[in-house]
Amino acid sequence: MTLSIIIVNYNVQYFLEQCLQSVAVAAEGIDTEVWVVDNNSVDGSVAMVRDKFPHVHLIANHDNPGFAKANNQALKQCTGKYCLLLNPDTVVERDCFRQCIDFMEQHPDCGGLGVKMINGEGVYLKESKRGFPSPKTSFFKISGLIRLFPHHKTIAAYYMGHLSNDEINEIDVLPGAFLMVSKEALNKVGLLDESFFMYGEDIDFSWRIKLAGYKNYYLPTTRIIHYKGESTKKGSMNYVYTFYNAMVIFTKKYFSGGNAALYILLIKLAIWARASLSFVRRLMAKIMVPLMDFAAAYGGFLIIKNLWATYWADNINYYPPEYTFLILPIYVLILMMGSWLYGGYEKPTNLWRIVRGMGFGALILLVFYSLLDETHRYSRAVVLLGSLWTILSTLGIRGLLSILKVEGYELRRQRKPSMLIVGDREETTRVRNLIGSIGMEPSFVGMVSVVPQQEDRFFIGNSLQLSELIRYYKTDEVVFCSKDMTAQQIISLMSQLQTTGVIYKIVPEESDFMVGSNAINSSEDLYAIDLNTISAPLNRRNKRLFDIAYSLILLLFSPVIFWPQQRKQHFFRHCFSVLVGKHSWVGYANTALTEGGTTQPLPPIRKGIFTPCDMLPGNRHLDATRLNMRYAKDYKMSTDMLIVWRNLWNI
User: Fold this and answer.
1) Model's pTM, two decimal places?
2) Percent of the chain, pLDDT > 70?
3) Count of C-beta atoms within a 10 Å radius of residue 35
4) Is the CA virtual torsion 57, 59, 64, 65 positive or negative?
């Protein structure tokens, strides 16, 4: 066996499938075995590998033992002369493995090898080559000085910035996303250190390769796309702790004496500093815009109240203090709550949701106003004018945030994107239909031929004209059909066009999804027939709010509703179970819960008291699988309302 490829996967099914397809192409003509170690994914990754890649050696863990331990599971069994640790969120060029093997054959002193990596926007990733993280090197990185002197030999040593990105060089640390090691070196070095859970194991492993007398090399003549997806977001406390704790483990292992103690102290201080900063940043990111909305709305209510009191009642002190300091803030909070319920605070921002939500809030205010005693009806005009002002001020704040280019508030993104699809006639047509089935409707879709000399009115140009086509058609997204293009062609085009500012997607052959972008954590950058509407934050929240509200209503009217129930013994148990979040009023039918199937998994939701099959009680001939898929793809709160209403006496 020449090459053993090991891929550790955790909940990135679509990226894994694309990765395995590129691996299959690159491994042609090479005696290769592929291992996938799945760390208890719940997104259908295991079923996908079994169904579409039966030749792959699959290890399906029932827990998440961490990156190092998962790799070791396969390293203990693989038989290749060379072993490659490869991330699932990567795409490799056709000749990538051949070039790496040839290089290692020609350089017996090469124990480990890394390659040139670009992200999903075609931009070079400086993580492709790194230096040893000494205390001094780490200080320059943590302090930010490395950004000021990115090519200085000492200050930029963390990313070895003094070395050319396009030249073969000896480096200290290999990237864990693509780390090839010879079996000979592996036998001397040993397996990955399992005390590292997620981060730092590549640094430790690379350093042990050097300590064993081998060299680590950076090979830029072949490239991979690395989407830089991470199971832990970098802004979270979990990431900060895991990453810096890995540095503590590394320090204790390779440093000693006072230097080690000082370095560990600095790392721990960095943990608390980063964690505190991260907490404050996340808190401000969540509350800053609502605070701005509240301040603007409350200020407007005060002005309107004073003007109305002055010109209508001829007395600026007409309204009592409790109206100013209690009632008006409640008005504003109800309007903001309406916006929140309709997704007005979701990103990317949607102005229509804000208008609808605050309009609903204003309606609630007027209804409650009409129910109040005459002595507490202060002014309907203030309610109406204040609500109108709140809507306008909130929209104005969104416009200001858009002008300032605050992430998530760019109003220009609400327009339909312009898209180019690169491939042959058959595949571009299939992808165009896929886009329509997902529910997207771009403002413009142009077909671009891969073959330069092809003349066909079906295409608006060819791949050599892509840069000009992007500018002329003001393109937002470019979709590459991997059936008609090699990974090398795609990577080359992405690298050439990285300054155009477009988003790149790749559609694997015979797949109903397309993936891309700079980071795989963003759902905006994963388009798939994934039935993920029910997973949207707004829908998850509305579904839970409906469950709580309906449970409370049933309990409130239980003296009337309980007695006609056909299943009295379950009534209160179901109400309280849904209320505390153990169940939902509507969930999937049992057929969607079977394991090992080849159909795409449904987004996880709570087990339901009822299912979509209960839309028509008594009908035993419904296609449960299709109903589940439709429910997940086109979720609406009204669907839950209808199902539970039709089963009101079967609670």
Assistant:
1) 0.70
2) 84
3) 23
4) negative
Would you call the peptide bond into 321 cis, given omega within 30 degrees of 0 as the criterion? no
**546 backbone φψ class: left, alpha, beta (φ>0; ψ -120 to 50):** alpha
- Asked if residue 394 lies in contact with residue 297, where contact means CB atoms within 8 angstroms, the answer is yes
Closest CA to 5 of 77, 102, 106, 110: 77
**What's the farthest any 2 CA atoms get from each other in the chain?**
94
Question: pLDDT, tens digit, for every residue of 315-372?
Answer: 888 888 989 999 999 999 999 999 988 888 888 788 998 999 999 999 989 888 887 7
Q: What share of the chain is helix, strand, coil (3-state, %, to 5)?
A: 50, 15, 35
Measured torsion, CA atoms of residues 596, 597, 600, 602, in degrees rounded to the nearest 10:
-70
How far is residue 235 from each of residues 91, 270, 289, measured CA to CA in Å?
A: 26, 14, 19
Position 284 scores a pLDDT of: 86
Nearest to 58, CA basis, from 45, 72, 67: 45
SS (H, E, C) 103-169: HHHHCCCEEEEEEEEECCCCCECHHHCECCCCHHHHHHHHHCHHHHCCCCCCCCHHHCCCCCCCCCE
| pLDDT at 195 > cutoff 80 | no
Distance CA 244, CA 199 (A): 9
C-alpha–C-alpha distance, residues 208 and 461, integer Å: 51
The two three-digit tokens of residue 389, written as one number: 């002002």
Question: E strand or H helix at 462, and its extent?
Answer: strand 461-462
Is the model's pLDDT at 142 over the cut of 60?
Answer: yes
| Dihedral over Cα of 561, 567, 569, 574: its sign | negative
How is the beta sheet containing 461-462 ordered, strand by strand? 461-462, 444-449, 418-422, 477-481, 503-507, 513-516, 526-528
The pLDDT score that the predictor gives to residue 454 is 63
Spatial separation of the C-alpha atoms in residues 105 and 564, rounded to whole Å: 80
What would the mean pLDDT of 184-199 be, rounded to a whole number?
80
Q: Do residues 582 and 606 lie in contact, with contact meaning Cβ atoms separated by under 8 Å?
A: yes
What the block records as the tokens of 96 is 């990538």
Cα–Cα dist 462/581, whole Å: 54
SS3 336: helix
**And the tokens for 338?**
């309406």
